[in-house]
Design a protein that fits this description.
The protein is of the alpha+beta class. It is built from 7 helices and 10 strands. The protein has helices at residues 11-33, 37-57, 131-136, 141-159, 179-193, 212-251, 259-274; strands spanning 8-9, 58-61, 65-71, 74-79, 83-86, 92-97, 101-104, 108-111, 117-128, 198-210. Strands 7, 8, 9 and 10 form a 4-stranded antiparallel beta sheet that branches. Helix 1 runs antiparallel to helix 2. The model has no long low-confidence stretch (mean pLDDT 81).
Length: 290
């Protein structure tokens, strides 16, 4: 499990480093200009060793970054505070960013639940929450996020129909699901990426369309469905208006109509009300029977 540690401040080590450099320069000068060459060389060597130890132990951690420390293959802890620190020079420090990152997925071509080829893409906002898992439980957490995100989007696409044309009983479709679909994707990503210690902050579908080979046919189908629905509404309204007209004529005794004349009036009114173009009036100089 992740273990947070707070190492010693590095400013004292930095001061010692500067003094060591100054002492090494003086020792080198003493070895060159005085008779104590051997002592001067020993002091230069010691200053060099101290310099290497301190420079290896100094560590800078920037804001929203971390360092995972390892000693001879054993996890020692994670530094999440920012600043200058001094650590064991034998530690190896792996840098892991804690900032939120965007993953814009590629547009994938998959089949939906009904077998229709569609194109789908998603954007995912994520960050590392557990540095131990990110460093040691997966080979590369960046690649793991990319591959598992693509797998989750593919699984989402095959789990639901694009729309309810073929699956009329579908409660959720990709096209109309909206926030519900995004929530399902976010939940699956959270489960998949937990192994890498990754937190999913947001996941949204950014592109959704039929594949090019069926896009034209599906567009015609949608247009036909819209036309049928509009026509049904027009007919429903026309029938109501005809019924109202006949009842109005009968109630106010404007004209007495037998069944044949009523049928003729209904036919004419339906043509006028349901026609796509304006009706052209025809003057009848005779009667319905002549």
């Amino acid at each position: 499990m992740e273990r947070i540690i707070k190492p010693a401040s590095g400013y004292l080590a930095l001061l010692i480093l500067l003094l060591t450099v100054a002492g090494g320069v003086y020792s080198l000068y003493m070895a060159v200009t005085t008779d104590n060459k051997m002592l001067g060389l020993i002091l230069v060597f010691l200053a060099f060793i101290v310099f290497i130890v301190i420079i290896k132990g100094l560590l800078i951690v920037n804001p929203n970054h971390s360092r995972v420390l390892n000693l001879f293959g054993k996890y020692q802890g994670t530094i999440k505070d920012n600043g200058l620190f001094f650590i064991n020079p034998f530690y190896t420090a792996q840098r892991i960013s804690l900032r939120s990152e965007n993953l814009q997925g590629h547009t994938l071509k998959v089949n939906d639940k009904m077998g229709n080829p569609i194109e789908i893409a998603a954007v995912i906002v994520w960050k590392v929450g557990d540095t131990f898992k990110a460093a040691y439980d997966v080979q590369s957490y960046n690649d793991y996020v990319r591959v598992q995100s693509e797998a989750a989007v593919r699984h989402l696409a095959v789990s639901f129909a694009y729309d309810n044309f073929e699956d009329e009983n579908a409660e959720i479709t990709l096209r109309e699901g909206g926030d519900a679909v995004n929530a399902i994707l976010e939940k699956e990503l959270t489960e998949r990426l937990a192994k890498a210690g990754v937190i999913v902050e947001e996941a949204r579908i950014t592109h959704l369309a039929y594949a090019a080979e069926i896009a034209g046919a599906m567009l015609q189908r949608q247009q036909a469905t819209a036309i049928v629905a509009a026509r049904a509404k027009i007919v429903e309204g026309a029938v109501g208006m005809v019924d109202m007209a006949l009842k109005k004529l009968s109630a106010e005794n404007i004209v007495e109509l037998d069944d044949e004349r009523k049928a003729a009036m209904v036919s004419n009114l339906m043509v006028v009300l349901c026609g796509e173009k304006a009706a052209q009036p025809v003057v009848n100089a005779g009667t319905l029977y002549n």
